[in-house]
């Protein structure tokens, strides 16, 4: 398949988990009606972003994967003939939780999951309290519409993660994400942060010759202290923006990407070919010093 239509669902969330799931399903249907073949939802779309506080009650939001949410989404994927990328709070065992994305193929088949590898611990993003780092390694999923690579939010800052995912044969890289601005910040700081976020992900697209899809939430949360900045986007294999979402509106967009551009870009800008892999072993060190 040379061209694929990507649906991105950028939405705000509420406290009720079922309401968020129902809303996401309606937006998946809207994307499919616009021609989407793969639909990506934002990080932890069934809830508010609860990691702003360390509260043991929030563990009640977690569920097994596969489980209730994948059971609800699988028939939707089959009915519509779309691949669904769904970011969920996984309860793996008693006291063991992950930030996980499930991938459901266009016939409703659950293909598997990717567990977020890089876990942040910043003010208002206390994810280490909730999530165990992923132990499944980096993953690609062979779907009806191409080989999908999935990384999650904080993973987006790490070129090593995107490189490995690309080397595994991904056709497209997806980043479900949840990131926003402290509403006490000045506008220059806001723009600097957003530009850094977009730039690092577009650089993964350029370095690997792959389309990148990043889907973020919108809306005010944390009693108005946090404005999730939306700004979801899709690039082509050279990092060119094909779609850019707003900072404050819910949006269901469908963007066509040409998968044949990867071969073209890798031939004309042969970054993968020219890698000096025999020189890269120091990258596995924490820091290159004498200790």
TrEMBL record:
The reply to whether Hydrolase figures as a keyword in the UniProt entry is: yes
Q: Which CDD domains match?
A: CPA
* Pfam families recorded: CN_hydrolase
What are the residue boundaries of the CN hydrolase domain, all occurrences included? 4-259
Q: Which keywords accompany this UniProt record?
A: Hydrolase
Q: Please give the InterPro entries that the UniProt record associates with this protein.
A: Aliph_Amidase/BUP, C-N_Hydrolase, C-N_Hydrolase_sf
GO MF: hydrolase activity
Task: Please identify the protein, giving its name as recorded.
Answer: Carbon-nitrogen hydrolase
Species, as recorded: Chryseobacterium edaphi
Provide the taxonomic classification. Bacteria, Pseudomonadati, Bacteroidota, Flavobacteriia, Flavobacteriales
